[in-house]
Structure formats: C-alpha cells, structure tokens
Design brief:
single chain; 7-stranded mixed sheet; lyase
Length: 276
C-alpha cells in the first residue's frame, strides 16, 4: 500500500503538507517518541485515516494523542478517526464548548453537510501542557483566530506549529469566526515571535522560516488599525489607495484586490463587534 508522505523536520518531528486541490488543506504535524506518536491537527476524515494507517504500518507507531490547534472543521473533523482508535483528543480550554456550539455549522460551510456526530477534545488545558517524553509543549494563546487557539512548541528542535495564526498560501487569512479576537491574535503572534523558532509550520501552505510570523503580524496589525479607524469615522474599508499599499507591502497575505476586500469586510465586522 502507499503511505502518506511525511517531511522529516528533525529526528522526531515530521510534517504532512495539506492539499487544497484535494480539499485536505490543513497541515499536519507528527511527533514521535519510541513507538508512540502525537498528531498535531486532525484535518478531515480522509487524510486522518491515511496518516493514522501510515504511522501504524510504516512507522510502527501508536498514536496516543491528537491535538487540535482550534475547532474549525478542516482541523478537527478527522477527530472521529482518532477517537475510533482510542486516541485522546487535546484542545485548549474552551475548545470543546466552541466545537459543540459552532462545529456543525463550520463543517456544513466547509463540506456541505454537518457530521452525524462531533468529536470534541476529551482533554483540555488552561495555560500550557507538557508532554515530556515527546519534548512537546502546548500553549493556549486564544482567543485569537478563534475562541480557543493553541500553539505546539518543540523547544529542543526550535519547531513551532501555529495553526491558523499564520498561513503561507495564496488564499490569505480567515478573520470571519464570530469569536475571533484580532487584538488577541496580535498578542498571540507576538508570543510566537518571542519563542524565536527555527522552523514555523503554518496552518496552511508552505513550511516557513520565522519571518513569516513578523510579516503576518504586520499585515494583521495594519488591517486591524485601518478597520478601527474606519469604525471611528463611520466608514467602510473601501479605500483603493490603502488596498494597493497593502498589496504591495504584503503580497503573500493580501493576495489580490478581491481577496483583500473579503478579508477587510471580515476585519471591519470584528472591529464593529469589539467590546467598548
């Protein structure tokens, strides 16, 4: 049988790159320790099943935990596969409630149908959680991209999995979650930068160097400042000159005029809903 390709990042850490063309767009991490493995982000059911099988058959590894960086369907629908195998599902505190409240709608949006059953985290933590055997540290950094985000840090290897706090593909960011906290997102990115990672694994797209965090922070911060000022003026963000400036300064994040307009609309909504 064919096995899922894993890019080795260190002796114990690997990366499976998501594929939007196959509607399997979320990057997945694997951390090994002897004959055990922790998976970071479940993706959808199909890739989850293939990755789990590959780890078992090729690597002779038993998956003990699957970590969700946040509740969105492209990161968590594959939880079902791991739950069937007796794997513990890990999330930041609040993610379980968030998935149960919004997961069906998000799955419907992403796949066209809600699942018969949702599989939320069975294990949550409030600030941080250590897996000492794996030299893995999980840190809660939400609300940010969603209401309960986390990052996965391997300090010995300098490898950081950031979920959708940062992306490295041609489709930009998703600012539309009703519980997104843009100021929290900015703080979360600042915290990621403070860790000084050697390698950054974004939620979507290419394996990245640390500067992806700085550029992502700049884009989110500038767009947020523009949104706040627009709310103060009672305007929208339909400013062609400002849009061109963002496209020139952040081409990998602003993407295109049409996509930037969509992201600006979501950002403006977040600014309008910001607590006084």
């Amino acid at each position: 049988m064919g096995y899922e390709p894993l890019l080795r990042l260190s002796d114990t850490v690997s990366f499976w790159q998501g594929d939007l063309d196959r509607h399997e767009q979320t990057n997945v991490g694997v951390v090994l320790a002897d004959d055990q493995a922790i998976v970071i982000d479940a993706n959808f059911e199909g890739p989850a099943r293939r990755i789990l099988s590959s780890l078992k058959e090729r690597d002779r590894a038993t998956v003990t935990h699957v970590v969700n960086t946040h509740y969105h369907a492209d990161h968590s629908l594959g939880n079902e596969v791991y739950a069937e195998a007796g794997v513990s599902i890990v999330g930041a505190l609040g993610q379980r409630d968030e998935l149960l409240a919004k997961g069906a709608d998000d799955a419907r949006l992403q796949t066209g149908a809600a699942p018969d059953r949702l599989f939320p985290p069975t294990l949550e933590f409030s600030e941080s959680m250590e897996f000492h055997t794996f030299e893995l540290r999980l840190m809660a950094v939400g609300p940010a991209h969603s209401g309960a985000d986390l990052i996965a840090w391997l300090p010995g290897d300098g490898i950081l999995f950031v979920g959708d706090l940062a992306v490295a593909w041609e489709h930009g960011n998703n600012f539309s979650d009703p519980d997104a906290d843009i100021e929290g997102w900015i703080r979360a990115l600042e915290r990621c930068i403070e860790l000084r990672p050697r390698v950054v694994v974004p939620g979507h797209g290419r394996l990245s160097e640390p500067d992806v965090l700085d550029t992502q922070l700049g884009f989110v911060s500038e767009l947020w400042t523009m949104a706040l000022k627009a709310v103060e003026r009672g305007d929208d963000l339909d400013d062609p000159a400002a849009a061109q400036r963002l496209l020139a300064a952040y081409p990998d994040f602003a993407v295109s005029s049409d996509r930037l307009r969509e992201m600006s609309r979501s950002m403006l909504g977040a600014a309008k809903n910001r607590p006084a």
